[in-house]
Specification:
alpha+beta; 2 domains; 4 helices; globular
Length: about 160
């Protein structure tokens, strides 16, 4: 696995894991790599320092930290799903109506295309992607899906 620091066309910076350098190139070529903040597919590698491991003990600490982050992301998703109204594919129009005062103010989540997300962000509507998870790991922890490898299409990515 390789981790890249990435930057989108509007200078949002984020990180993503890929199976290999070729895997990154292929996913970019297929339009599978998107900015999690605005949804644009115009993403490039940012400058980053290499990570050098000095001991196996560091690997164990990293694995525990990754597990804790995955569990926190899973709890976040569960919280949103239990406390927000699911509006499905009407997310973009409903979020816009709430922002403009045309619909009651309430927390929502649903589905939006990258283009809809970009339009919402440009209009000043605050949105954020929810973590997507694959089946649990061997130790029972939720396993986040690496960017660009979601099991749903980008149009089905849930946002809140």
């Amino acid at each position: 696995m390789i981790r890249y620091a990435l930057r989108c066309e509007v200078d949002h910076e984020f990180e993503a894991w890929f199976a290999s350098s070729d895997g990154y190139d292929e996913q970019v070529r297929q339009g599978l790599v998107q900015c999690p903040m605005c949804g644009t597919q115009n993403v490039t590698k940012a400058i980053m320092a290499p990570q050098v491991r000095t001991s196996k003990g560091a690997d164990a600490g990293l694995a525990e930290a990754q597990k804790a982050v995955a569990e926190a992301m899973h709890r976040l998703r569960q919280h949103v799903e239990s406390t927000h109204d699911y509006v499905g594919s009407s997310f973009a129009s409903e979020a816009r109506d709430i922002h403009e005062g045309l619909a009651p103010d309430r927390p929502i989540y649903g589905e939006a295309t990258p283009q809809e997300v970009k339009s919402l962000v440009e209009e000043g509507v605050h949105v954020a992607p929810l973590p997507v998870f694959s089946p649990k790991t061997d130790d029972g922890a939720p396993k986040p899906v690496p960017a660009g490898q979601e099991t749903t299409t980008p149009a089905n990515r849930k946002l809140n």
